[in-house]
Amino acid sequence: MKSLKPSHREKKRYLLVKGKGANKKNIDEAILEYVGVLGFAEASPQVINSSSGKVALAINRGSLDKVRASFLMSGKDLEIVKISGCVKNVK
Questions:
Q1: Tens digit of pLDDT for each residue in 13-47?
Q2: How many beta carbons lie within 10 A of that of residue 34, not counting itself?
Q3: 56-60 long-range contacts, CB within 8 A, separation 24+
């Protein structure tokens, strides 16, 4: 199979999310509640690493503002600590 051109790849941003309720279920609910199913599919959030109270999350670059707003608008204790273009700076 032929590999994708760099212009066709998804450009990701990596977020470090912390809080009392920082787990995959709460993060997915917060994003779904604010941007809906189509926005959730556009953002395509993926949990990279999870430890006590901290989650490293990968999302598409174009929907970064929507995801940030969804964390602010949710009543859950979710806070974005750091945003980076590569995984190793977030871990």
A1: 999 999 988 889 999 999 999 999 999 999 999 99
A2: 17
A3: 56/14, 56/15, 56/16, 56/17, 56/87, 56/90, 56/91, 57/14, 57/15, 57/16, 57/17, 57/27, 58/12, 58/13, 58/14, 58/15, 58/87, 59/12, 59/13, 59/15, 60/10, 60/11, 60/12, 60/13
Q: Which of 75, 27, 74 is nearest to 50 (CA)?
A: 27
On whether the CB atoms of residues 56 and 48 are closer than 8 A, the answer is: yes
User: Of the candidates 68, 70, 69, which has an alpha carbon nearest to the alpha carbon of residue 82?
Assistant: 68
How do 79-84 and 54-60 pair as beta strands? unpaired
CATH class for domain 10-89? alpha beta
Residue 51, SS3 per DSSP: strand
